[in-house]
């Protein structure tokens, strides 16, 4: 209880709540069910997520989170709050045409973005702004005020060359010292994990990056980026992503210090980057845990972060990638909002939000504008950036932060013990571990235990989607080739989580006739509605439209309606009691009417053999592998 200034004890008339009393009420609510099965979940790292957290779950006598700007940085990397609650709103520019890319960059900056991320294509493989010379990059940045707008480069193995061009452009324009800001994007480890090859050799690329640090005269223009986004987009868990980021950053830190760069300067030239996911609390905890772990690495290296090093640790977040969908892409706006909230509340310094329609290729003008405005609205209207560590003190967030830090640190130690991230990627062991976790997530998605709104849940057949932006003609100039002995490894293959469902939807949409399934509803009352709705939802995720006209008094009426519908498959929907009385009759009649495939909505229980003998081919219920069910139906319907 809390006493006010006048001595009033707030909520004093209520009994002090206890966990034991809460458990009694919970048991009543779940009617004696299994507490763990109903209310407890587990992350892909094996972290147990409880339904309730209290002060007993964290160390309240000594707050290990510390103060903002002081080790271990859980509460934030800055000592003072963000000015006006603003963070760095970074706009991503990707259009292949240099002139169009420049127009996009200027539009972004004039309408609220505070920095740019340039995705560059130097080797002619596509996937970014087609540049081959310093002059090309200069044209991309035409009229961009480089003394005001930070620029971040993403050019894979070619980032060294692009960085040199950018430095020359800055010199030509007289931008020097602290005026220049951003990141040169030297991240050969992420490039190796993404493409499976570093043409000039990984060690050579790192050495070249270290050379840029040693000759740098622009302290706010960081050289290295230690990004774990490639791991996240391949399906990594939070712990695996943290381990990748820590191991990558440590590799760069070690290379710089071994070359004679002091630890503080080396740390100041690294940007940590993670993926912002749609799970708000997981994103918050992941960003906080990353700062905590990196602070521990720096402390072990002889540098304790405190007021002497304001803003030393910089975290960039990228919202997009694996959670983007092509089907019902409008929901991506909500996903982007959730990811933005998690990243900013977690204390990310810089955030890039993918356009909602970028899953299909080049984002549209609308997509770019909404991606930018998602951040602007949250910043200016909600003010979420005005409070330092707003989630700090939350028993759940603090516990989850500690748990993520623990699993991330353990993974990092394992990587280091095996010779470092480069050696682990060369052996392929990290890739296998990520693939195992991705397979577990795939199973959750296939069974809809991890639903994707608009895709595996609440599909809209015949939805209106935004027009796809047309890509320009390919650049006919030969791509740049880097000399040297290549370093190779099995890449971490990026993929979107919705792809298996989207493949089914695409196949159904390409069919000459929209595939349909008949709802053979038992009865004329509302008793069948729940399972009929469930069935429409399940089959709609595969692009199969549900048809039918309410409920039917008997099997004969249902069979006649089925025949008139033109459908080739049917699903029987009703209550368990109705199934016991009429399911077999319905199945027999539907088969006789020409149904190629008959489902029963619900678990069959002990009657499974009898149902199958009557002609029921499969069962649709909560927890079923929806993807396998739909693939089988597509085959039957000839989709």
From TrEMBL:
Would the keyword tRNA processing be found if you checked this record's keyword annotation? no
InterPro entries referenced in this protein's UniProt entry, alphabetically: Cbl-dep_enz_cat, Cobalamin-bd_sf, MeMalonylCoA_mutase_a/b_cat
What CDD domains would the database entry show?
MM_CoA_mutase_beta
> What does the UniProt keyword field contain?
Cobalamin, Cobalt, Isomerase
| Any one Gene Ontology cellular component term annotated for this protein | cytoplasm
Cofactor requirements of the protein: adenosylcob(III)alamin
GO terms, biological process:
propionate metabolic process, methylmalonyl pathway
For molecular function, the Gene Ontology terms on record are: cobalamin binding; metal ion binding; methylmalonyl-CoA mutase activity
Q: Does the keyword Isomerase apply?
A: yes
Pfam families hit by this protein: MM_CoA_mutase
Methylmalonyl-CoA mutase alpha/beta chain catalytic domain location, by residue? 43-473
Read off the Gene3D superfamilies from this record: Cobalamin-binding domain, Methylmalonyl-CoA mutase
What protein family does this chain belong to?
Answer: Belongs to the methylmalonyl-CoA mutase family.
Q: What is this protein called?
A: Unannotated protein
